[in-house]
Amino acid sequence: MIAMAALCWNLNAARLRLMLNGRAGQLGQRGALGIELAAKCALCATPGGSGGPATLLLLLAQRGFSPSKGTAVFLIDQGCDLLFFLLMLSGLVAMSVFGDAQWPHQGLVQLSLLGLALLAVGVSLMMGYLPKLLRTQRQWLAWIRPSRRRWLVRRLLRCRHALRMTLALPKATLAAMLALTTLHWLLRYSLLYLAVIGIGGHADWLWTFLTQMLAMAASQFSFLPGGAGAAEVGVGSLLLPLMGREQAAAAVLVWRLISYHLYLAAGAPLLLLYSARLLRQR
């Protein structure tokens, strides 16, 4: 599992190199891996992952990459992830509704998947007409506090810009990035399956993937670093129908140690090293 996690880090580093395309100097796999680990450590250690983008932009700026270009790289990265999960969500909804999949909490899972699918469709339609909506239909955000409204508008515009930039990439580059993204998430979301097998439990791989997808979506509403608490409770509750409480707790513990805490342990020294270098330069 540790080797699989390390492979996921290297896949993300390769994707970063592909996005930069030599525009940030001579950046090898080792250097890209350092940036990836430091940025993801900051993302995991800060509420809402707010430290991740800032750290990435700062580290790229140290290599002469302007903040505006760094923001574009971050948005493309997020766009690839978003495209992958939209495609996976579409497949899971089709399998759950039209197939013969038999999962625990079948009705609840189908309702959750349909809700996520409808939300994705609604957001996609809104993204297409977002500038027009913001200009002509301001009253639909009038009930939100001004500070919260500005935050929401920025997030929506950023998401729209990310998708447009991602889809505008050359087809070969986009295909390579989506291949790396797909392999990364399939491996990363296999960690829970391996944890369940390791503690002597039994679960379908697709169910463990769906479990993580639903739990991590719910954890986005938690402002704690890394969705702490919400992710564990969500995954544990969806595993309980398949195994005992002790087994589910052990599987969740192993999964979070590898998928979350290992990122912190591996990235923290690099984040401190890069911070010390920046302070010395100033």
Task: Explain the overall architecture.
The relative contact order is 0.13. This protein has helices at 2-20, 29-45, 51-61, 67-98, 106-128, 130-136, 146-167, 171-188, 191-198, 205-219, 230-239, 245-281. It is globular. The protein has twelve helices and no strands. The protein has 282 residues and is mainly alpha-helical. The protein starts with a helix and ends with a helix. The chain has one domain (2-18, 28-281). Helices cover 78% and strands 0% of the residues.
Fraction in beta strands: under 5%
Uncertain stretches of 5 or more adjacent residues: none
**How big is the Rg?**
20 Å
Multimeric state: single chain
* Major sheet attributes: none
Please write the string of helix (H) and strand (E) elements: HHHHHHHHHHHH
Q: Quick one: overall form?
A: globular
Briefly note the structural class of the backbone: mainly alpha
Distance between the termini: 40 Å
- How many E-type strands? 0
Tally of discrete structural domains: 1
Chain-wise SSE layout:
Blueprint: H1 2-20, H2 29-45, H3 51-61, H4 67-98, H5 106-128, H6 130-136, H7 146-167, H8 171-188, H9 191-198, H10 205-219, H11 230-239, H12 245-281
Helix pairs in contact: 1-2, 1-8, 2-3, 2-12, 3-4, 4-5, 4-7, 4-8, 9-12, 10-11, 11-12
Salient structural properties:
78% helix; globular; mainly alpha; 0% strand; 282 residues; single chain
Give a concise summary:
The protein has helices spanning 2-20, 29-45, 51-61, 67-98, 106-128, 130-136, 146-167, 171-188, 191-198, 205-219, 230-239, 245-281.
